[in-house]
Design goal:
mainly alpha; two-stranded antiparallel sheet; 6 strands; binds zinc ion
Length: 405
């Protein structure tokens, strides 16, 4: 067997860096275009370079890149949106998928502030361009002004999505690239980074924690990354709803949130649209309302009546088992171990959607550490929430967990 054919220079990808950003940095080192790097220099002359490298690039390309750079294919995949399936996306929504069913399960199947079912129904099929949860109609092109000052730093994949306001490391707002570049060219100075204040800083920290460790320590309990993104998406939907058609509790809760956020109710929306169809300014206002809601629930000033609401307020009594804590050493030394574990669980989840035995085993595994029936039910609800049929998921009693009360 011949030794791997390494490129002489191959800097490691940065934490959460997108594949396109890393490839741009590599190509710049060799003074090549990304296309040339991926065809001639990768020995893949016939490769059709994908229009967007961050979606779902061909496995053959990732394997060849892994050989030239020593970065594992699983790590490279995790730098693309395909690598965030099924935590962030149920599926990549590129192949055949049912938009309405996805919306009903991912968004409306969960609830945070409002009682389950109170959000009602909406037809997402009216928006032909709706690409699924978090898939924006227009991809954002934002950078952190502090990161951009360092040519060895890349861009995070999550900056392209309407999910975060700022760079967690530098605690400053991400800026649109077109806004940034001319100002550098004009006066040679970069714009002053604008700090991200509370409550948005906490929201950004939760999402960053989810992406780097797979868990989010919320005031009520630590939730799995898959639960966090469904919780946040459901919350963003709730704050976008009309106040007048809610219950009294729902209406006063939403009023309080918008008042505290100091923004017009519903971010000025007059008719409902899925989050992904809105412009970034409106999305940002909704993220602000969602962050305000998290703060108000945690401090007990509003009550979250939804299925996932209990995760947001501190528990009155500390539970015996409060979930797996993230590594105290930080996420990065274990980054690859996490990616590997993720790939395995991903495969199990995909199989469990159509295979009863796998679903049963997955539930049994996931609930091994559960000491109460309540926790067991939450894990079971999580699996249901990511598309595993309810009748594939046995009850605690059916699984022989008579120890749970
Ligand atoms: Zn930064």
């Amino acid at each position: 067997m011949s030794p791997p054919r390494r490129w002489p220079l191959h800097p490691r990808p940065g934490p959460l860096e997108s594949l396109s950003s890393w490839l741009e940095r590599l190509a710049r080192l060799y003074n090549l275009s990304v296309k040339d790097l991926l065809t001639h220099n990768l020995g893949l002359l016939d490769l059709t370079v994908p229009a967007d490298l961050d979606h779902d690039p061909p496995a053959m390309m990732l394997a060849a890149l892994a050989e030239r750079t020593g970065v594992e294919p699983a790590h490279l995949k995790a730098m693309t949106l395909a690598g965030w399936e099924p935590w962030l996306f149920d599926t990549l929504y590129l192949r055949q998928w049912d938009a309405q069913a996805t919306f009903d399960i991912y968004v409306r199947g969960n609830s945070v502030l409002l009682a389950p079912g109170e959000a009602g129904t909406n037809q997402v099929s009216r928006w032909r361009t709706w690409g699924g949860p978090w898939f924006p109609v227009r991809w954002l092109n934002r950078v952190c002004p502090a990161c951009a000052a360092d040519l060895d730093r890349g861009k995070a994949l999550v900056w392209r999505l309407p999910l975060m306001i700022g760079c967690v490391e530098h605690r400053c707002r991400l800026e649109d690239t077109p806004d940034l570049t001319p100002s550098i060219a004009l006066d040679g100075e970069r714009p002053q980074p604008i700090p991200v204040d509370e409550p948005l800083a906490t929201l950004d920290r939760y999402t960053h924690e989810a992406l780097t460790t797979g868990r989010v320590p919320l005031p009520g309990r630590t939730v799995h990354v898959g639960v966090w993104f469904r919780l946040l998406r459901s919350l963003l939907d709730e704050v976008s709803l009309a106040l007048t058609t809610r219950s009294t509790h729902g209406r006063t809760t939403l009023e309080q949130i918008w008042q505290s956020a100091g923004r017009p109710e519903r971010a000025g929306l007059t008719s409902w649209r899925p989050y992904e169809q809105l412009d970034w300014d409106t999305q940002e206002a909704l993220l602000h309302a969602a962050a305000t809601a998290l703060q108000l629930v945690a401090s007990g000033r509003i009550t979250a009546r939804g299925r996932l609401g209990s995760a947001l307020r501190p528990a009155p009594h500390r539970p015996v088992y409060d979930g797996d804590q993230p590594s105290p050493h930080g996420p990065f030394p274990h980054h690859n171990a996490w990616q590997e574990a993720m790939a395995e669980v991903e495969a199990a989840i995909t199989l469990a959607r159509t295979d009863r035995d796998t679903a049963r085993q997955l539930l049994a595994l996931l609930t091994l550490g559960c000491r109460t029936l309540d926790r067991f039910e939450k894990e079971r609800a999580y699996l249901f929430g990511i598309g595993i049929p309810a009748d594939f998921l046995p009850s605690a009693r059916e699984l022989g967990r008579v120890d749970l009360a």
